[in-house]
From TrEMBL:
Record protein name field: 2-deoxy-D-gluconate 3-dehydrogenase
PANTHER family assigned: 2-DEHYDRO-3-DEOXY-D-GLUCONATE 5-DEHYDROGENASE, SHORT-CHAIN DEHYDROGENASES/REDUCTASES FAMILY MEMBER
Pfam family, one: adh_short_C2
InterPro entries recorded: 2-deoxy-D-gluc_3_DH, NAD(P)-bd_dom_sf, Sc_DH/Rdtase_CS, SDR_fam
This protein's UniProt keywords: Oxidoreductase
SUPFAM superfamilies: NAD(P)-binding Rossmann-fold domains
Family of this protein: Belongs to the short-chain dehydrogenases/reductases (SDR) family.
Signal peptide: none
Statement: the UniProt record of this protein carries the keyword Cytoplasm: no
Record PROSITE patterns: ADH_SHORT (PS00061)
Length: 245
């Protein structure tokens, strides 16, 4: 079997209806995984894309505004969890509200932790092996601007990736993360609409272009395959060279 094959594996991707999550779901299916597409709204488009490709997928509704909403997701066996669902709220730090703090922390960090905990409990209970890939950010390393809860949450995602890797590496669960650079999705619509910010960002990216959701999929798939069996607690930057600069 190829060291890049996911045949026989089941993967669950959160926020799989659009953007990076959709691209990862399609990539995992192309590698042979059966994919459960989880979203707060219908993932029918993603399921159709996978089935058109000859893959197998299903969908499930889950809203992480309730951070414990993922508890029932692993009643049937899942081998791979992609924690992709995330939101961002933009405002000056002096004006930032408790509501914008809590909303982002609940989805990006608290739901990620407790969903991953539920996944690991299920994997460990059946004596299986698991993979977790968290979607981090450049703001897991840098401060950003006007996005305090997002930056705090993504620094938290980086920390949890390492903590969970430390606890579970010897138990058969690999925990890693991908840190996307600036990717053309709904998440970055406001930045791309602002001509000055857009130009400043583009000017700093060595690759000279915004990333596409598909650019993230390969890295996430790699972190789920036998090829990355000895990779634990890594945060793989996929940023067109941004952090190298
Ligand atoms: N785009 C970038 O440049 C970039 C850079 C670094 C990291 N990221 C991270 O990449 C991940 C995916 O973002 P994206 O860029 O693909 O943006 P996106 O298109 O906005 O996708 C975010 C996904 O998360 C889902 N989601 C949000 N709140 C949810 C909730 N309460 N319950 C369940 N699902 C929820 C969204 O569902 P809806 O469609 O219903 O909103 C959507 O499927 C996020 O964690 C983001 O922080 C993105």
């Amino acid at each position: 079997m190829s060291m890049f094959s996911l045949a026989g594996k089941t993967a669950l991707v959160t926020g799989a209806n659009t953007g990076i999550g959709q691209a990862i779901a399609v990539g995992l299916a192309q590698a042979g995984a059966t994919v459960v597409c989880a979203g707060r709204r219908s993932c029918d488009e993603t399921v159709a894309m996978i089935e058109k490709d000859g893959g197998t997928a299903s969908s499930v509704l889950v809203d992480f505004a309730d951070p414990m909403a993922g508890q029932g997701l692993f009643d049937t066996p899942v081998d791979i969890l992609i924690n992709n669902a995330g939101i961002i709220r933009r405002n000056d730090a002096v004006d930032f509200t408790e509501g914008d703090w809590d909303a982002v922390m609940d989805v990006n960090l608290k739901a990620l932790f407790f969903t991953t905990q539920a996944f690991a409990k299920a994997v460990l209970a059946r004596g299986g092996q698991g993979r977790v890939v968290n979607i981090a950010s450049l703001l897991s390393f840098q401060g950003g601007i006007r996005v305090p809860s997002y930056t705090a949450s993504k620094h938290g995602v980086a920390g949890l990736t390492k903590l969970l890797a430390n606890e579970w590496a010897a138990k058969g669960i690999n925990v890693n993360a991908v840190a996307p650079g600036y990717i053309e999705t709904n998440n970055t619509e406001a930045l791309r609409a602002d001509a000055d910010r857009n130009a400043a960002i583009l000017d700093r990216i060595p690759a000279g272009r915004w990333g596409r959701a598909e650019d993230i999929a390969g890295a996430a798939v790699y972190l789920c395959t036998p090829a990355s069996a000895y990779v634990h607690g890594a945060i793989l930057n996929v940023d067109g060279g941004w952090l190298a600069r």
